[in-house]
């Protein structure tokens, strides 16, 4: 009798203990993860609803604090922009500086299936247009774009203009005075002056297939002279060209160090190098062309919201002034003064440059250019 009673007692106690363990386990699971509202008791629901600050779900992803940028800008420019952007927004920029806009756009196109960048910045918008048509760039119109002239805003929303650059001639004054002035050669004032045979192998410019400046220079000649005369000019100039560089800025460096007497590049970069003490000067010829420097959001990047913040930030007046001071580029904002050492943009003799046509004719133009004798 005693053994049977004891055995029943043990069985009952075991069952009670098992139930207790299940209850405890159930409470632990409830605290560790999201709960199905239908299983909550009325008292539990009332307590959670009354909470003034609901606790975020454990599965909610934290807000991104970084931005991956492919930059077709000078190294010191992207460094300063990155530093300032972090100061203003707290967002860290991880950048890869590409040598030119062509290289950057080619890389972004190659990564279409698996985008690695959030932002493409720098270089002429002609390099952004094809990416937009390929569906590689995000459609985004910044609220700050309303303050700008329409020419700086892509009507399709794939790119945004934020600075302007004017094509110019870079002249090494020391070599010119020593080697060419004694021959009676005058400093050039027009693009046609570059056809002077005295410049043979002393002139350097950039490749239109890889450099935004190189392509705009070629298009400039076609627009100012017409198709046939434009190509005649480019063929004659090719005889004076020593070689074509990958990036527009390369010609400045090679002329500044005295390897060449004269070159073609962006006026703002020429002025920047001249301020560093190199024996060079900038000449802005008649009927020159200008670039609209672009920025675009890469579709499918991991930090799209931060990319939008970056575009908005670039279009503000303080950043426009900062960029003008550090790079000598013109701002697209009318309330930002022209860079020191540069004439007002309205005083520059600009060619009638059809940007839409320039973008459309780029593949055929580059192909025809490659048929010129190699340099």
UniProtKB/TrEMBL annotation:
GO terms for cellular component: outer membrane-bounded periplasmic space. Residues 1-29 form the signal peptide. Residues 33-47 have a biased composition (Polar residues). It comes from Cohnella herbarum. This is ABC transporter substrate-binding protein. Keywords: Signal. Residues 32-62 are annotated as: Disordered. The keyword Mitochondrion does not apply. PANTHER family: ABC TRANSPORTER SUBSTRATE-BINDING PROTEIN, THIAMINE-BINDING PERIPLASMIC PROTEIN-RELATED. PROSITE patterns: PROKAR_LIPOPROTEIN. Residues 48-62 have a biased composition (Low complexity). GO terms for biological process: thiamine transport. InterPro entries: Ferric-bd (IPR026045). One of its GO terms (molecular function) is thiamine binding. Pfam families: SBP_bac_6. The keyword Electron transport does not apply.
């Amino acid at each position: 009798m005693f053994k049977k009673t004891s055995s029943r007692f043990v069985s009952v106690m075991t069952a009670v203990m098992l139930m207790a363990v299940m209850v405890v386990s159930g409470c632990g699971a409830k605290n560790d993860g999201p709960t199905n509202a239908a299983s909550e008791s009325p008292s539990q629901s009332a307590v959670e609803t009354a909470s003034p600050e609901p606790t975020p779900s454990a599965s909610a992803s934290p807000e991104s604090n970084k931005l991956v940028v492919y930059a077709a800008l000078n190294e010191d420019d992207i460094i300063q922009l990155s530093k300032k952007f972090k100061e203003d927004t707290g967002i860290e920029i991880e950048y890869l500086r590409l040598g030119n806009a062509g290289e950057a756009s080619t890389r972004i196109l190659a990564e279409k299936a698996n985008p690695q960048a959030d932002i493409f910045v720098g270089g002429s918008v002609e390099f952004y247009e094809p990416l937009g048509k390929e569906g590689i760039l995000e459609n985004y119109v910044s609220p700050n774009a309303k303050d700008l002239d329409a020419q700086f805003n892509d009507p399709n929303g794939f790119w945004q203009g934020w600075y302007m650059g004017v094509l110019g001639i870079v002249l090494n004054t020391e070599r010119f005075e020593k080697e060419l002035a004694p021959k009676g050669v005058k400093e050039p004032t027009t693009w046609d002056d570059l056809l002077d045979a005295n410049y043979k192998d002393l002139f350097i410019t950039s490749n239109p297939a890889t450099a935004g400046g190189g392509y705009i220079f070629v298009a400039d000649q076609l627009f100012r002279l017409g198709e046939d005369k434009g190509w005649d000019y480019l063929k004659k100039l090719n005889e004076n060209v020593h070689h074509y560089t990958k990036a527009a800025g390369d010609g400045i460096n090679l002329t500044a160090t005295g390897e060449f007497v004269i070159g073609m590049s962006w006026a703002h970069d020429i002025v920047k190098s001249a301020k560093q003490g190199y024996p060079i000067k900038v000449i802005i010829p008649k009927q020159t062309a200008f670039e609209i420097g672009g920025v675009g959001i890469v579709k499918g990047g991991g930090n799209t919201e931060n990319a939008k913040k970056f575009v908005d930030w670039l279009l503000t007046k303080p950043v426009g002034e900062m960029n003008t001071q550090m790079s000598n580029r013109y701002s697209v904002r009318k309330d930002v003064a022209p860079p020191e050492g540069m004439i007002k943009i309205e005083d520059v003799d600009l060619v009638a440059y059809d940007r839409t046509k320039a973008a459309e004719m780029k593949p055929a133009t580059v192909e025809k250019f490659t048929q010129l004798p190699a340099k």
